[in-house]
Structures are given as structure tokens and as C-alpha cells.
Write a structure and sequence with these properties.
74 residues; 5 helices; globular; mainly alpha
């Protein structure tokens, strides 16, 4: 992982945590990220962001509104 990629990952995690205010939701997101990156290419990872949100809603009980806030702009 390059320094730029690491910086982007840390910034993304901070934004997600600050918006969902939930360690459990962050853990679900990280699990989905890990699974997606180990099983697919980076382009596939970006395409499946909506699937990560759906997974987080199902696993943590986030509302649809909070799931929308769960998005991170690139």
C-alpha cells in the first residue's frame, strides 16, 4: 500500500466513524472492505460500495438515512 493510499484509507475511516458514530458499523465496513479487496480488483471494490452500505444496514440496524450518510465521496 502506498502512502497516498494509506492516507486516503485513514481519512475514509475517520469520515465513516464520525458519520455513523458506531464502532460496530465501522467493523462491518472494514470486514466488507477486506473481503472485497481480497476477492476482487480495486474497480470492483469501488462498484460495490452500495453493497457495503446494505450489509452495514442489515448487520447493525442503521436507518436508511444513516446509511445514506455512510457514503464517502472520492
Amino acid at each position: 500500500m502506498t502512502l497516498r493510499a494509506a492516507e486516503k484509507l485513514v481519512a475514509t475511516l475517520f469520515v465513516i466513524y464520525s458519520r455513523v458514530q458506531s464502532v460496530r458499523a465501522l467493523h462491518v465496513w472494514l470486514l466488507a472492505l477486506h473481503t472485497s479487496q481480497t476477492n476482487a480488483a480495486a474497480a470492483h471494490t469501488v462498484k460495490n460500495w452500495g453493497e457495503w452500505r446494505t450489509l452495514a444496514v442489515r448487520k447493525t440496524g442503521l436507518s436508511v438515512w444513516r446509511a445514506w450518510l455512510f457514503r464517502v465521496k472520492n
